[in-house]
Amino acid sequence: MRKRRHRSRAVLAVVTAAVLGAAGCDAVGGSEPAPSGTGAQRAKPSPSPTTPAWDSSPSSLAAVGDSITRAFDACSLLQDCPEASWATGSSTEVDSLAVRLLGSAKAASHSWNYAVSGARMTDLAGQMAQAAAKKPGLVTVMAGANDACRDSTSAMTSVADFRAQFEDAMRTLRDTAPKAQVYVASVPNLKRLWSQGRTNPMGKQVWKLGICPSMLGDADAVDTAATERRDTVQDRVEAYNKVLEEVCAKDERCRFDGGAVYEFRFGTDQLSHIDWFHPSVNGQARLAEIAYREVTAKKA
Fold first, then answer.
1. pLDDT band, residue 300 (cuts 50/70/90)
2. Which of 46, 47, 56 is nearest to 22 (CA)?
3. Measured by CB atoms within 10 angstroms of the end CB, which terminus of the chain is less buried, N or C?
4. What span, in angstroms and rounded, lies between the C-alpha atoms of 111 and 242?
5. Residues 6+ away with beta carbon under 8 Å from 194
6. What is the pTM assigned to this prediction?
């Protein structure tokens, strides 16, 4: 996600994952002679489906997105900590998706993290171009929180622009890596972030530096205006997730997490105790669990 334009300020996000596997078998076997004539016609196995089976054991992985995937503020103040990334990190405390799928040795040479702290959906196409050049087996996407976390609700990325930008990013990937699988994580529940973080006095002080003002500004305010503002942000996040689901559904090699990251009921242990906004190392581990579960699930 994003560090605000003022260097002294921290940035965004929280929690995240989707996907599956399949197989088939021969119709004729054993030691009996194969039938001939019209019987052979009937006995022939059905044609293979045109839609490829989801590969739950990809040979390489590239990650795109924002500060969540860079593990910003997970380890030290106002710094990325890519070794703790849920997607590609090497930390044994996290056990990242790449390590779970590839093993630690192969993950070190066959996974790449192109996410950028502060990135919004408009930046995703450029990251996808970098990822596509590696011809990865799987691309993970976690983006959208920065589009909602703006100075005001009026500054949030419109739903139409968000859709067009995600579609552009997917086209960019497909131009170079048509066979790459894509796992799209839902945008985290920012209103739950507010409800959890506001219980900590230190967290609320840090938020005053300007972290996600559209949701976290005036954290103790519960008047009508503040409630309507937070509801507006939450509605926009839900709309973004609908876009991610719909655009992904149009691509036979793309899997949306079904809202798993959005619905995850994280607590303060999963929040960075530096900014009370980004995932902690524990939170990154939970995101890795969700992603692995979704990527390796066998779904119809």
1. low
2. 56
3. C
4. 28
5. 215, 216, 219, 230
6. 0.82
